Amino acid sequence: MRTTLVMAEPRGGPDFDLAPFIAIWETTQACALACRHCRAEAMDRRDPGELSTAEGRDLISQVAAMGTRVLVLSGGDPLQREDLEDLVRHARASGLKVGTIPAATERLTGRRVRALGAAGLHQMALSLDDAGAAAHDAFRGVPGSFERTLTGAAFAREAGVPLQVNTVVSGENWRRLDAIADLVVGLEVVFWEVFFLVPTGRGAGLQGLAPEEFEAVFERLYLLQRRVPFIIKVTEAPHYRMYVAERERRDATGPGPIARRIRARLARETGPGGSVGQAPRGVNSGKGFVFVSHRGEVYPSGFLPLRAGQVRETPLARVYRDAEVLRRLRDPALLGGRCGRCPYRDLCGGSRARAYALTGDYLAEDPACRFEPGRTDRIAAQNG
User: Fold this and answer.
1) ω before 336 within 30° of 0 (cis)?
2) Residue 68's domain is classified under what CATH number?
């Protein structure tokens, strides 16, 4: 049986063999929070081996030169770097869309948010992992972090900085997702990133979701995206893309070709008010995405701890394009198990980080997906 993808990746978009759509630089691992899912098990002190301001500026220039569109200055808590505003200015001057993810601590002040806005920050993300203070604070490990998050959101609105909210979904909170979504909607966000737990670092002790629970969450996100103006992005659950393709095919809602409607759900390159959007193609670890640690090591993502290179030794573009692990991650023909047989392997590819965390093989099938060959092959063939 011929198996044509419901939504082929669009032609003429960015070539992920040459450059990622998004680069994450972990500017520091220092953080005053003790989040239960933290892959890095961050502590509240800076590492003397961090990339310096000069090295950071050079890295930013390399990111821009290789054709990447979006840079996120992450942590730890990037507010622990006094040069954060300078790095934002340099990224903006280099033509990048730049965001950052401060921790909700006493360092998150109105003055600092205004300074970041004045430096040209395109988007600021805050973490919100439950709808109430007790559960959120327990997850983040510090009392008061929930209120500081809400206060930080108010600072962003006052400073005119577009607000993103990041939420970690695990077995402990997914049933409360509707209440979390209501809170997110009320914060006037431009972007909601829903991250599905990868069991690594401190997160190895948390309960993940069963495949049918993933799909229950997918349905809620899919229905919500149809009625809200902001972007909803799913991270470390790329089979959401397959879910959306199937739903659009089945429901046939709205005018226009199915492929166009799927792109509208999954590939809005610009968010409300010109804020940061989504990649025009499916991004996965090492495929449209690259992560640089606070010490300059290059990884496919922060949750796939396979070192590909070191920017202090090799230019980032060369690492991204030539490192064997990254090249293999970009080749769907190498995927194993159900992911390798899936007609959606280009569109999805499964979470490489979760596959590695649970099986030790970064090319293995993603255990979170309950792929059914008869169902997806039938839908794909109907479209072909």
Assistant:
1) no
2) 3.20.20.70
pLDDT in tens, 238-266: 999 999 988 887 776 555 566 677 777 78
| pLDDT on residue 57 | 98
Crossing angle of the two packed helices 110-119 and 145-159, in degrees rounded to 10: 40
Alpha helices in 120-238 (DSSP H): 133-140, 145-159, 177-186, 211-225
Rounded-to-integer distance, Cα 280 and Cα 269, Å: 6
pLDDT band at 221 (very low <50, low <70, confident <90, very high): very high
Alpha-helical runs (H) found in the chain: 53-65, 84-93, 110-119, 133-140, 145-159, 177-186, 211-225, 239-251, 258-266, 316-322, 324-329, 337-341, 352-359, 373-383
Q: What is the residue-wise DSSP string for 60-121?
A: HHHHHHTT--EEEEESS-GGG-TTHHHHHHHHHHTT-EEEE---SSTT--HHHHHHHHHHT-
Full residue range of the structural domain in which residue 32 is found: 22-292
* Residue 253: per-residue pLDDT: 56
Please check whether residue 35 lies inside any domain of the structure.
Answer: yes
